[in-house]
Write a structure and sequence with these properties.
This protein is α/β, with parallel strands linked by helices. The protein is built from 12 helices and 21 strands. InterPro entries: P-loop_NTPase.
């Protein structure tokens, strides 16, 4: 019987990852380096008839928008896709190299204990650095199948040497741990990206942040204020005692700045919940239309009414813009918030958040570290966490500014209520290779 093959191109670092026989293998790489793709291809080439596998993504939004479609696309390119369902649990069936079929179940890492389950021949944790260590602890015990230990794969962009993904591969002296293999790949090593991709993305980062987000290096960001693990996600909104929407308006359309409106609430037991984020690059007319529409949407919410605040910059221009916004939102509970201080600083020719923004974000960072901040599930979360966790080493800070403003207003509004006081922790300021699948 004749045998045909379906080639699928991968590059050198991906090939190194594929060839490793270690129990725990990691592909630690920059943005756009093909992490999810090689994780998907790896399962397809390892699977044998009747073997069950599990894939974990940080949340169902990332699962539906990145992990699942990338897996399906790679499976179809290899000619192994046999079908899949997305409800009630996302499952895919692929053809294996030995001519049989294997089932792959896809789960979210939002509730780590739910990852308990029957034995698996392999586990792939996609974007592992965006998940808590509990995901690893609860998911890895499923790695047992037919008397053999299942393999563990992690694909991720690093988040520093204090993150659990670093400890998984290295000991305290920085030496690789036994039976692990970590492959590092720089974004520019991926020959399949558009030529301008690396340069365009690099221009948005400081040198330090670029080393992490593009270089795939374990970097401790100077001045790091927020961490992803400090922001648990809630599936539904809890009862609240106060709610605000705070707007940070872009000064000039076309300057590259964003306008952001963060809706935040406080619960009766002292938690702060970021419920919604509206963000975009709009002209003044478009921005005003969005702000007005959002005010109407917020006014129709059940529960605690939403009070609106917006940032007013100093000078006559800031005052004129503020008065225009007050007229726009007449009929709603709206107030201006006059801010001052050095808002920006220059580093290596790049404009970054200044002392005033950093100081203003301090109280929110302290509460987040103490475990008192939550996020309400929504499609805005990934962009929100990407910005807030890069602050203040990232040129954009509109969502951080709006969050700081909302938090500080909630503190003022609830200062005289009978709030239980939660104690916050103190905070200091290419060559290409090919893989083939037999058919």
């Amino acid at each position: 019987m004749s045998t045909s093959v379906t080639p699928l191109a991968i590059y050198e670092k991906q090939a190194e990852f594929r060839q490793s026989s270690a129990w725990i293998r990691g592909f630690c790489a920059g943005r756009g380096a093909g992490k999810t793709r090689i994780g998907a291809v790896d399962i397809m080439l390892r699977a044998r008839s009747g073997e069950p596998f599990m894939v974990v993504s940080p949340n169902y939004i990332m699962l539906d928008e990145t992990t699942w479609p990338t897996f399906r696309e790679a499976a179809e390119q290899l000619g192994v896709w046999r079908g899949g369902v997305r409800s009630p649990t996302r499952r895919a069936v692929i053809r294996t190299q030995d001519g049989g079929q294997a089932e792959v179940v896809f789960r979210s890492g939002e509730n780590p204990e739910s990852l308990r389950g029957p034995s698996k021949a392999g586990l792939w944790i996609d974007e592992a650095s965006l998940m808590s260590q509990e995901v690893f602890h609860w998911a890895t015990p499923v790695l047992r199948h037919r008397g053999k230990m299942g393999f563990l794969t992690l694909t991720f962009t690093p988040k520093g040497r204090r993150h659990w993904t670093y400890d998984l591969f290295f000991d305290e002296a920085g030496r690789p741990k036994p039976d692990t293999h970590l492959v590092h790949a720089h974004t520019r090593e991926n020959p399949f990206l558009p030529p301008q991709y690396h340069g365009n993305i690099e221009s948005q980062y400081t040198q330090t942040l670029a080393s992490q987000e593009l270089g795939g290096e374990f970097i401790e960001l100077a001045g790091e204020m927020f961490r992803r693990e400090w922001f648990p996600v809630l599936p539904a909104a809890p009862a609240t005692i106060a709610r605000v929407r705070y707007w940070d308006k872009a000064a000039t359309h076309g300057s590259g700045a964003f306008t952001a409106g963060v809706r935040m609430a406080r619960t009766d037991d002292g938690l702060f919940v970021v419920e919604d984020v509206v963000r975009g690059q709009w002209s003044s007319l478009e921005r005003d239309r969005v702000m007005l529409q959002t005010a109407h949407t917020d006014a129709n919410l059940s529960g605690t009414p939403v009070r609106i605040f917006f940032e007013q910059e100093g000078g006559s221009g800031g005052k004129e813009s503020a008065e225009q916004t007050l007229r726009l939102l007449a009929g709603f509970s709206v107030q201006r918030d006059l801010v001052s201080g050095r808002r920006d600083r220059l580093r290596a020719g790049q404009r970054l958040p200044g002392d005033a923004k950093i100081s203003r974000a301090g109280p929110l960072a302290a509460q987040a570290e103490a475990g008192n901040v939550r996020l309400l599930r929504g499609r805005w979360i990934d962009d929100y966490l990407a910005e807030i966790c890069a602050f203040p080493e990232y040129p954009y800070a509109d969502q951080v500014d709006a969050s700081s403003g909302a938090f500080n207003k909630l503190i003022a509004l609830t200062a005289t209520s009978d709030q239980p006081q939660r104690i916050a922790a103190p905070r200091p300021q290419p060559s290409r290779h090919g893989v083939q699948f037999r058919r």
